[in-house]
Design goal:
This protein is mainly beta. Helix content is 14%, strand content 42%. The chain has one helix at 7-24, and strands at 35-44, 50-58, 70-76, 81-87, 102-110, 115-122, 125-130. It is elongated, with a radius of gyration of 27 Å.
């Protein structure tokens, strides 16, 4: 027959191991959630773009687009570019001759404490949006 340790000894030993492990291994710091500006826009084939809505969101994933000649920028009050995405709008859809006149897009730009404006530039023009916190 195998000798069995009394329950009190096992419990005390388990608590001791737990305390030692807690002292030896510091908990990892929790990263603060990242904030992003979610920007919904309408891009037009023959007129300047329109920023439809801008919302500050947390715990989201950035959306990545294929790079192109158009851009959306997060700017400081002095005009410094804090974050930028380039993209290429596509107005052709399936078999529609001439494509479509309007295309909706959604962008996510990583927030910065210095952010003051969003600037959206396409070949058809540009528009600027003042951020409100």
């Amino acid at each position: 027959m195998k000798p069995v340790l009394p329950a009190r000894v096992v419990l005390a030993f388990s608590l001791l191991i737990g305390l030692l492990a807690g002292a030896l291994f510091e908990p990892l710091p929790v990263a603060a959630p990242l904030s992003y500006w979610q920007v919904q826009v309408s891009l037009y084939k023959n007129k300047p773009p329109v920023i439809e809505s801008v919302v500050l969101v947390e715990n989201t994933s950035p959306l990545h687009l294929l790079p192109g000649e158009s851009s959306i920028q997060l700017l400081s009050a002095s005009g410094q570019v804090l974050n930028q995405q380039t993209f290429q709008p596509n107005f052709s859809v399936g078999d529609l001759p001439g494509g479509v006149a309007r295309v909706p897009y959604v962008f996510t730009l990583l927030d910065s404490p210095a952010a003051a404006f969003i600037l959206l530039r396409t070949h058809q023009g540009e528009t600027r949006y003042e951020l409100r916190r």
